[in-house]
Amino acid sequence: MKHRPECIPCCLQRVLHAANLVTDDEWLHRKILSDSMQELCGVDDLASPAEVVHQIFHRAGRALGVATPYEADQKRWVEKVKGAEDSIRAAVEDSGDPFLAALKLSVAANLIDCEFREKLRPGFSLKALLEEAPELELVIDQSESLRQTAAAASRILFVHETAGELLFDRLLIETFGKSAGFVTSVLRSAPSLGGAIEADALDIGLDKVATLTDPGVDCRGLLLGSSSDKFIEEYEAADLVIAKGQAAFETLEGASGGSSKEKKAVFFLLRAKCAVIAGELGVSPGDCVVESN
User: Are the C-beta atoms of residues 267 and 142 closer than 8 Å to each other?
Assistant: First the structure.
């Protein structure tokens, strides 16, 4: 999908929020915003919101001297989730339906590394997430279709979003009952905006349930037209793609099986984090979604 006019001020708001996390230098804030506005004047009208955000934050990150301004917050969340792993795992295993329990947790966790999570879900915390997940409403609910498609799939490609969500994603992958050689986990080739990288995946043992890879290009979501030949082979080999987060939805919506004439099954797991994506999906900001193509 292409970005909308509303994405421009939203992008600037996110840049300012990020700058405030790194420095209280008002002159630098103004400089970064000025540079971002100039950059935004030249973005491709057909670029997805994810591409626009990545382009702007790449430049802002250089000015701030950090790869991701959310690193400290991300580390806190990762440690919280890892510390609660036993209770999270028990909640899934004792639920009566481990697949649905793990799916709801994975979708609910898609708010963990969102800088506006408090606005979307006041009082959001790991404790609240775990307490509310069993009764979580999937406003778009293709969970049964996903269950059946995953059971029948010979190869699954799972596109992850942020580091704080990886444990929940791992628990969902475990419910598929596939060996690691039949599930491919897609991570970021470089840290950016909290995107999960290989080191994050190794930290929570994701390599025990999936083969780790990256698109071969620094991006948010998936840019199939720019990805490495190796990754395109991995993508085309999968008969099921599970894409996590808004950036994946923005860049993969309508994707098919590459050179194959048969349309690939793609499922999107996300919480709508802005009015543009909520409108595209027909839901409200903050809603939980399991959608298919």
Answer: yes
Please list, in sequence order, all residues whose beta carbon lies within 8 angstroms of the beta carbon of residue 224, skipping any fewer than 6 positions away.
Answer: 232, 235, 252, 255, 258
> How many CA within 13 A on the CB side of residue 288?
21
Backbone angles phi, psi at 77, to 5 degrees: -65, -45
Q: How far apart are CA 83 and CA 209, in angstroms?
A: 20
CA distance 241 to 74: 26
Domains detected in the chain = 7-64 (1.10.8), 71-292 (3.40.50.10880)
* Helix 98-108 with 143-152: angle, nearest 10 deg: 120
Q: What is the pLDDT along the chain (293 residues), one digit of tens a residue?
A: 889 889 999 889 988 988 998 899 999 999 999 999 998 998 888 888 888 888 888 888 888 887 777 788 888 889 999 999 999 999 999 999 999 999 999 999 998 877 777 777 888 889 999 999 989 999 999 999 999 999 999 999 999 999 999 999 999 999 999 999 999 999 988 777 778 999 999 999 999 999 999 998 888 888 888 899 999 999 999 999 999 999 999 998 766 544 444 568 999 999 999 899 999 999 999 999 999 98
